[in-house]
Write a structure and sequence with these properties.
The longest helix is centred in the first third of the chain and has 17 residues. This protein folds into three domains: about 170 residues, Rossmann fold; about 140 residues, Rossmann fold (3-Layer(aba) Sandwich); about 170 residues, Rossmann fold. α7 links the parallel β5 and β6. The relative contact order is 0.11. With about 525 residues, it is α/β, with parallel strands linked by helices. The termini are far apart. The chain contains 21 helices and 18 strands. Bound molecules: ligand TZD and calcium ion. The site of ligand TZD has 20 residues, from α19.
Length: about 525
Amino acid sequence: MPTVRDTVHQLLQRHEMTTIFGNPGSNELPFLADLPDGFRYVLGLHEGAVVSMADGYAQATGRPVLVNVHAASGSGNGMGALTNAVAARTPLVVMAGQQVRSAIGVEANLANVDATALMRPLVGFATEPACAEDVPRAMAQALFEATLQRRPTYVSVPYDDWTVPVGDAVAGVLDRAVRRAGALDDEQGRWLVDQLTSATSPAVVLGGDVDTQGLFDRAVDVAERLGAPVWAAPSQFRLPFPNRHPLFRGVLPAGISAVSDALAGHDVVLVVGAPVFRYHEHQPGRYLPDGARLVHVTDDASAAARAPVGETLVADPASALELLAKAFDRPVGTIFEPTPPPAPRAGEAGRLHPEEVFAALRDTQPADTSYVVESTSTTGSWWRQMDLRRPGSYYFPAAGGLGYGLPASVGVALGQPGRPVVGVIGDGSANYGITALWTAAQHRVPLTVVLLRNGTYGALRWFGDLLGVPDAPGLDVPGLDFTRIAEGYGVPAVHAGSVEELRSVLATPHDGPRLVQVDTVLTTPSS
Ligand code: TZD
Ligand code: CA
């Protein structure tokens, strides 16, 4: 008779979830016995890195991914990284081992006491099946919930469950399929089109979902038909529109009044595939400029419910954009002539300006490169210099939780073999996910990590000024040499001391991972 373990292995095979990101403990070992051929276990050395690698891999492949971590301690280590996966709406199924059923009540070592409660604020669904026979169905539910809700889920499995035989009835779950339809109905469609035909000056705001849902090119088509200016929604984790397109106005600032100021003069603001909005620095004020209506399309019911303003259609952004493309069936008014970038600002002796680093990347890396960025004081410089025109070109920690960038760049590279990946990481951020370098070395992941070393938590210096705290302790990170750290994990590394050196290193072909460290001058995110 097949066991719980055989059945779950088959379930994972049927759903193509055979690349597992994990860091196991004793509770998890019985699940890993007899893994069929074709499974790949990508070991991460810390659960934060494990979750972020899986997040990058799931985003790059557009598929749900299984994460295998240890009970309370391992799950807890992964929770910071899970905040980003929640905000990015990444379908991760986090499966943790649990002590044997009879040992949970007495709180034996490594029992995960009240396992589901531990994760509940973050995950959309958490379960510890009531009996062993229910584990395969619960795993199927967790993967369907993750996909339908687009939110991580959590399953805690007592380790004595895996070898329990299951009857025929349980195998029925293997053949299940769950499909969702999310198109607008006719009346909703008419209403949406009316909003835009009656607008005198519409503005379009696009969220990361536009890119995760494969709508990057469709969004360009619709914006060109509307002839409307386009912004990326605040706190962007993916780029939904080519950043040098003449209709692109940039990423909206992440403050309430600042958004109103940026959108002033528009009477209809169409928001697609984003929450309204993911603010950051608190700048109280009106949510919208005078005379503006907000029309919102998202398939995220929670984002629809919590928005402070506007009318929302809960539907697939794909169906709304398709409808608009049909409704505005007129000759395309805009020819995509990219706005050229300005000359990069200069640094000082031995320290490059971040703009010089980004201009070097732009000029030396292939046009379809995916960038995973976790460098927080350099966003202004980034958007001034980069020229990103392809879907899947840009990834950023969606909830602002550091420790995503380095591991996610490994996950993205593993998820899209053949497409170049560059991680752009600050000397503060790198430390939270540093162990991902080891995984990159072990799997010979083709990846360039550009490490910007300004010696400080640059963004917090800027925030300190904003909040009237110019003298906070604990903001500098001197004395870190990432070339030596990287070499220690098995990743070849160089220090580039000048623009010429940097450009020459970046233009050199390489196999596997490499790290390029460069010293940079301090900038602010907005300058
Ligand atoms: N811890 C975690 C997990 N996430 C955070 N966002 C922070 C702390 C706070 N934080 C920021 O929001 S930005 C930042 C910190 C510590 C500085 C990052 O430094 P960096 O980049 O060197 O990576 P810059 O360009 O110097 O800002
Ligand atoms: Ca820094």
